[in-house]
Amino acid sequence: MSELVLLGDEAVALGAIHAGLSGAYGYPGTPSSEILEYLINEAEKTKAFRATWSSNEKTAYEEALGTSIAGKRAIVTMKHVGLNVAADPFMNSALLKINGGLVIVVADDPGMHSSQGEQDSRFFADFAKVPCFEPTNQQEAYAMTREAFDLSEKWKVPVLIRMVTRLAHSRAVITPWEKIRPQNPVKKTEDTRGWRLLPAIAQKLWIDLLETNKEFNSYSEATDFNKLTINPDYKKVGIITTGLGKNYFEENLADMGVKPSHLHIGFYPAPADKIKKLADSVDKILVIEEGYPFIETKLRGILPQSIAIEGKLDGKIPMTGELDPDVVRPSLGLDKIATKKVEGLPGRPPQLCQGCPHVDTYEAINLAVKDYPQHLVASDIGCYSLGALPPYNAIETIICMGASIGTAQGAAEAGLRPALAVIGDSTFYHSGLTGLVNAVAANAPITLIILDNSTVAMTGGQATILPSSKLYPLIIGLGADPEHVKTIVPVKKNLEENAAIIKKEMEYEGLSVIISVRECLEEAKRRIKREAMKK
Amino acid sequence: MKYDIILAGVGGQGVLSLAAIIAKGAMKDGLQVRQSEVHGMSQRGGAVMSHLRLSDSNISSDLVRKGTADLILGMEPMEVLRYSEFLAPEGVIITAKEPFINIPNYPEIQSIYDKVNGFKGSRLVESVALAKEAGNARAVNMVVIGAAASVLPVKAESLKEAISELFAAKGADTVAKNLKAFDLGLGK
Lengths: 535, 188
Known about the structure:
The complex is a heterodimer of chains A (535) and B (188).
Chain A: E1 4-7, H1 8-18, E2 21-26, H2 33-46, E3 50-53, H3 57-69, E4 73-79, H4 80-85, H5 87-93, E5 102-108, H6 122-128, E6 132-133, H7 138-155, E7 159-164, H8 165-168, E8 170-174, H9 199-222, E9 226-229, E10 238-242, H10 245-256, E11 262-265, E12 267-268, H11 272-281, E13 284-289, H12 294-300, E14 308-310, H13 325-328, H14 357-369, E15 376-378, H15 403-414, E16 419-424, H16 425-442, E17 446-452, H17 471-477, E18 485-488, H18 495-507, E19 512-517, H19 521-534
Parallel strand pairs in A: 2-3, 2-4, 4-5, 5-7, 6-7, 10-11, 10-13, 13-14, 15-16, 16-17, 17-19, 18-19
Antiparallel strand pairs in A: 1-8, 6-12, 9-11
Helix pairs in contact in A: 1-2, 1-7, 3-5, 14-18, 15-16
Chain B: E1 2-10, H1 15-28, E2 32-36, E3 47-55, E4 69-74, H2 77-82, E5 87-96, H3 109-117, E6 123-125, H4 127-133, H5 140-149, H6 156-167, H7 172-186
Parallel strand pairs in B: 1-4, 4-5, 5-6
Antiparallel strand pairs in B: 1-3, 2-3
C-alpha cells in the first residue's frame, strides 16, 4: 500500500480500520475529534463499518462495549477530560471479559491549548490496570492501534491509547501494512458471566485482571515499543523517555556529542526489568515525559535509593505545560540557543466571530443583570466560554461539561440571586439533561439559558446529537413549566426585548429556561456549501 | 539538508493552507516533511502558528527549536514578529504586508514594519494588491507562497503543481488565477 500523509489522529483511525474495526464512537473534543471525523468520512464512503458521534463519552463507551459483547471490534475516542465522563464504564470494563477488541483513544492536551486541564490519562490506565500505548509519531500511532486490538482480544481487556495534542495535530507520512484484517462476524460472547459485575463475580474478575497483569508485564519487557539501548562507555547519565519526550531528546542529541544509554517507554505497565538494567549501567537517570511525572514518581518512591533521578520533580524539567525541544534542552546539560525576541507585542487571544449569535445573547444578559450586584452567571464548555473575555465579561464560571446548571442552582440555594446558567445546545445534550432534571425537581430559582446554534461549534462544527427542533419538547418533557420556557432570537434589534424577557424570568422565584436560537455563522457557511454540493 | 519554517497569522487567514501547499510541494521533491498544526479554540480569530519542517533525512521533533528556523512566513506582519525568537541568525521573515486589526491595541503599523525590516533579508509583500492583479482577491496566500518560493528549498514547479492540485476541483480559471498570484509573489 502506498504512503499517506496523515495527522496523528488520522493514523489512529486508519490503524483501526486496518485492524478490522466494526464500530467507532466518540464525542468531539480537541485534540481528539479528527479520529472519528476520519472514520465517519470513511464509513460514509465505504459503508463497511459504523462510525457516529454519541451524546457524550459515556454513551459512546457503552455503545463500544455493546459492540464488543457482540464479538465485533470497537474504538471509542475522546479528549482527556472526556474520559472523566466515561470513567464509570471505563473503570468497570477493565474487569469484563472483552469479546471483540475494544480500544479507547484518549487525546491529552498538555499545555491546555484547548482545554480546562492538563490531566495525564496514563494514570487512568494505571488506575484501571489496563494496558496503555503511547505513540511518538504517526507511524507508531497506526501500528500501535492495530496492536492494541490484537492485545485486547488476546487478553480480553480494553486497551487505552494515549495521544497528545502535538501528535494528534501533526502531519507526516505513514506506510500502511499490506494486510488488512477482515472484521469479526457477529458472535456473542460465550462468557456473559464475565460481563455481570455482581459483587461475587466482580471479586473473581478483579483477581483475574490482576493475574492477567503479569502477562502485560511480560509483554512490556519483550516489546520493541519499549526499547533499551545501553552505551557501556558512558555512565554519567541514562535517559528514560516517554511519548514525545523521545522526539525532543533526539532533536538535541547531536549537540550532546555522546549517545547516552536510553530506554524509551511506549507501552505501559512500564518494563521494570529494563528500567533496572538501565539503572545498573549508569550513575544517574533523567526522565523526560510528556505530562505528569508518571514514570518518575514510580522510580523515586519515598525511601532513599542508590541512584540519582532527575526530571520534573526536582525542577530539571518544568512540571506544567507542554514539552518542546527547548524545554528539554537544559535538562541534557546543553546551553540555550541564542534568540532575538521582539518584546511588547499585544496578545491576540481567540474571540467570538464577527456576528456570532453568542455576542447578542451576552449583550442581552449583561443588560438584564446590570442592576443586580449579587447576581451569578455560571457557564459551561464551548465557543461561548469566550464570553468570559472582554469586552463581554458576561460569564463568571467555567468548570466542566454541564456544570453551569448545578452551579447556578447551588448558588441560588445558598442565597445568590439572580442565578443564571448559560450552556450550549450540544453541551446541554452531553451533560445538561440530568442537571435540568435536578433543577426541575427542586423548582430551583435559576434562569437556564440554552444557546442553540445548531452545531458543536468549538470543535469544528459536528452535528449536534439532536436537531434544534427537538430541544423545546425535550425541555418540556423533562418537566419544565411551559409558562417559563421562552425562546428568543439573539439579534441586535431584539436586544431590549431579549433583555426584558431574561430579566422577567430572573425575577421569577422558580425555574425558567430560555432558548436563544440562532445558527452559528460558520455552520451556516458550511451548510450552504453542503447544499450547493448536493445540487 | 534541513529547512525549518514557522508559519504565522490570525485564525481564518489560511495559515494551514500555506503549510499544506509547501508540504505537498516538498514531498514532490522527495523531501521528508513534518507539519504541526493548532486546531480548536485558538482558531477563533486568535494568533495561529504552525511548524513545518523539511529535510532529506529523518525528522525527530514536530516542533522547531528556538533560534534555528530558516524562515518565518506569515499572513500578517505583527504575527510574524510574535515568533521572532524561533529565527536562526541567518533566517529571514517573509510576510503579507497588510495588518489584520481585530484587537483594540494594535501598534502603529510603521513601527511593525520597522521591526520586520530589522531582520536582515526580510520582505513585506503587497499581497492584497498582487492578488487583485492576479484576478482573485482571495489568492493572498498564493502570493505569499510565491514570495517564499525564492528562498524555499522546493522547486517553484513543485509548489505550482501542489497549488494546481489543491484548486483543481474549482476549475481551470481558479487554478490559473492562483498560479498567477504565485508568480506575482515570486516576482515574475
